[in-house]
Amino acid sequence: MPDFSAYDLIVVGSGFFGATIAERCAAELGQRVCVLERRPHIGGNAWSEVDTATGIEVHTYGSHLFHTSSQAVWDYVNRFSAFSNYRHRVIVRHLDRFFTMPMNLGTLSTLFGRFLSPDEARALIAKEVAVSGIVNPANLEEKAISLVGRTMYEAFIKGYTAKQWQTDPRELPADIISRLPVRLTFEDSYFDDRHQGLPLTGYGEIFRRMLAAGGVSVHTGVDYFHVRANIPANIPVVYTGPIDRYFDFRAGELGWRTLDFEREVMPVGDFQGASVVNYPDPDVEFTRIHEFRHLHPERDYQREKSVIFREYSRFARQHDEPYYPINRTADKAGYDDYRTMAEAEQNVIFAGRLGTYRYLDMHQAIGAALRVYEAQLVPYFRDGRPIKQ
Ligand code: FAD
Ligand code: UDP
Question: On the chain, which terminus has fewer CB atoms closer than 10 Å, C or N?
Fold first, then answer.
């Protein structure tokens, strides 16, 4: 067990949020930082490793695509790795036909069986939205129909969302679907961000370099709750684990979705010709298949076999990894109760995806960590200002 009194800061979790805080406080402020990580490896959900059977780098928790429009975040991650110019594109297999995702003119034209100009597509969607009578979309279903019309909703969103969330789409927040762009052009890149790419030497390398900052000491396989009693109360804690677990589920369990990945090594050089293929149809149990060789076309991987992950989604129980916050009405009320408890907690910052019960992309986790560092930790370490939520 680490001697906690030897540290200036404890960081719980080594994902992008925790790693950014640890690196900044050690490298810029010269603080001694202890990082505690429950899993046997660093990096949180963005961790990647080389698959021993194929030599292909796999993203252990599903494909992680880096994209950001923030120059500050891009400059920051580029300190730890060079990035490829990979642009993410997703293929959809619906009724054994091929479509592109996000939904664009190509998706619409293929679905409707004729070439649609941007104006024709706009008019077609507007007509379907008018028939549906939706004016102020208040949930995922209404938002999706208002963006793409009912035909596209039924083909690509309804079945996929049913598998991904197992929740009535009218109970899901509209912003889940707002993450997907809809374009009336043939542009098929998944993200619009100015900066996109994948770390040339893998995510694992980024985390190793971030946490190699002098003054950072990392302890994997250590659950904060098993050692919490030994941490002196005057040492601040940045906690990036689940907020409901911190308070022993006093206000109930917040709803999360978890994922199961089924790995298979296929005896072919290329299984599906794309890094991600989505399966919206209800007769297929999984939501998508990842084929990791396509994330790095610049690498000279062997051509005899390929590793794939089939992704299945289900409700998380207490011992599962929480992946996606569900955010139903009851969850929002529960989270408000936990926020009130968090505000009364001394010397603890609740942060990251799990600590704030919010879906965060990697760049958002890094951006939020840089802001917390400037707003809370610099004033605390330089001027002795108390830590507030
Ligand atoms: P995490 O990465 O979850 O790290 C939290 C860490 O805290 C974990 O390692 C956990 O083990 C540890 N921890 C929790 N409790 C304890 C405890 N009690 N003691 C010690 N350690 C503890 N983002 C993108 O930008 N692009 C993508 O393509 C993308 N794809 C994604 C796909 C999936 C399936 C998921 C779930 C997320 C995806 N993300 C993607 C989001 C990305 O993973 C998050 O932005 C990032 O994980 C958030 O970082 P974090 O540090 O807040 O949380
Ligand atoms: N979605 C869908 N069909 C698809 C892809 C996405 O209906 O082919 C919906 C689904 O509800 C999903 C949401 O859009 O949860 C966000 O998709 P995204 O690809 O951003 O999900 P992630 O990669 O974060 O799992």
Answer: N
pLDDT for 21-78, tens place per residue? 999 999 999 999 999 999 999 999 999 999 999 999 999 999 999 999 999 999 999 9
- Where in the sequence numbering do the catalytic residues fall? 179, 183, 257, 288, 311, 359, 361
Complete edge-to-edge strand list for the sheet that includes strand 306-315: 97-101, 90-94, 276-278, 288-291, 306-315, 256-266, 324-325
Distance CA 260, CA 276 (A): 16
Each residue's pLDDT tens digit, 293-303:
999 999 999 99
In sequence order, the 6+-apart residues with CB closer than 8 A to the CB of 367 are: 68, 70, 72, 73
Contact call for residues 118 and 105 (beta carbons, < 8 A):
yes
Contact 182, 101 (CB under 8 A): no
From the list 177, 201, 178, 197, the residue with the least C-alpha distance to 189 is 197
197 DSSP β-pair partners:
66
